[in-house]
Amino acid sequence: MPLSAPADRQLLHLRDIELRGYQRADGLFDIEAHLTDTKSYGFPNEGRGWIEKGEALHGMWIRLTIDDDMLIHECEASSDFTPYDICPQAAPNFARLAGLKIGPGFNKAVKERVGGVLGCTHLREVLGQVATVAFQTLYPVRRKREREAAAKRAEALRAQGLMPEQAPPQRNPLIGTCLAYAPDSSVTLARFKESEPSPPDGFGLKETQA
User: Fold this and answer.
1) How far apart are CA 130 and CA 108, in angstroms?
2) Which of 91, 113, 137, 208 could be a cystine partner for 131, CB 3.0 to 4.6 Å?
3) How far is CA 14 from CA 4, 18, 41, 49, in A?
């Protein structure tokens, strides 16, 4: 159901963020974000003189090119609309994110490379959501790889005269990351019957916020 009916009100500010995940022909993946801020009224601006109603105050793009291990091969950013002429100078610095891996400690590493005066607040903020979309985009790819690896482990066990059932079950990283994937929820018990009902320590989608 939608939210309850709001009180009588007037829209003042609108931030739109579009996020997309693409698989490339070369086997890599592009995760893109487009952020725009607009106002419902015109207002004076120190850098641009006057910004019209509906005209973008901020209009920014960022793209991470990653592999299926979540390693960033390339990062490109662009600031098409900014409140000050100097702002776009921060965008090239986001190329420094190449070599980082999306996972535990990602946000801390981002701050080390493009934090403070080295970067842009709005581009940094959207990177957390880009990381989540990266997980969403690559989940089926990574799960397929994990299933193939499990099949190879089972084959190796059989070659040793052991039954695959004797191998310890693999933990699914989704377990424990939200209410639906609580270890004892009906969703978890139905979907991950062969997984241990607890995630490995220090792992999960929420860890990208560290």
Assistant:
1) 15
2) 208
3) 20, 13, 11, 20
